[in-house]
Amino acid sequence: MKSIFDHVSHACSQTVTKTYSTSFSLATKMLSSAIRQDIYNIYGFVRFADEIVDSFHDYDKEALLNEFESDLYVALERKISLNPILNSFQETYHKYGIEKHMVEAFMRSMRTDLHKTTYLTQDEYNTYIYGSADVVGLMCLKVFVKGDNEKYNHLKNSAMHLGSAFQKVNFLRDLKSDYEDLSRTYFPNTDLSKLDEASKILIIEEIELDFAIGLQGIKELPIEAKFGVFTAYRYYSQLLKKLKKTPALQIKNTRIRVANYKKIELLTRSYVKYQLNLL
């Protein structure tokens, strides 16, 4: 029975989420059980594509990405895949009417990571962010509003800003590994080899603006999604605060983290704010 295979596929997507990101996994657990699996399914898909371009250095990344993308579109057309991650994703894709252009934009940004290492203009940067982060936020929003197009359109802008904020925090946190290991420079008009406090503050102010717009949308999310998304927001906000307090030179030379005990503390405080309607 296909239901058994689907169950195995779901378990794979959940395992990918829990293995690759403890913070995102924690936030996903705070979502309603009615939508939790679908967010696992989306994360599993985007995580695997990202791993191909970021981690598989001893293999032909382009060939692997080509194969993954080909299998992806076959899965979307057939509504089944023997790749359990893609089988899970196609289920969520069809269930909530995720538009194909979102998937295509995401894959374009992943493909860009195969060759492009420097973003010289704001337009290039914005296009990459849209594909790698904004559309992922929109895919998740499709799940959160459960097919309510009016609600989706109302919250679309804030979801994109929140996705952008998460991605930009990741860029700043991973600056050292991106620059040294992958030779990538995402922030335009910024010489990361000479990152100074002024440049760092400009980047952080841009992220803070994204967060402010994103938070307004979180306040209007359905109850099934609000606490989980707010938990993720709180985690990334804390990480940004830590980056803001960290000297630019240190950011260039180490990866800033939020300790596990701090994540639990953030979860507790987030729950209190949520229960008291203080969002």
TrEMBL record:
One of its GO terms (molecular function) is geranylgeranyl diphosphate synthase activity. SUPFAM superfamilies: Terpenoid synthases. Pfam families: SQS_PSY. PROSITE patterns: SQUALEN_PHYTOEN_SYN_2. Keywords: Transferase. InterPro entries: Isoprenoid_synthase_dom_sf, Squ/phyt_synthse, Squalene/phytoene_synthase_CS, Trans_IPPS_bact-type, Trans_IPPS_HH. CDD domains: Trans_IPPS_HH. This is Phytoene/squalene synthase family protein. It comes from Bizionia algoritergicola. The lineage of its organism: Bacteria, Pseudomonadati, Bacteroidota, Flavobacteriia, Flavobacteriales.
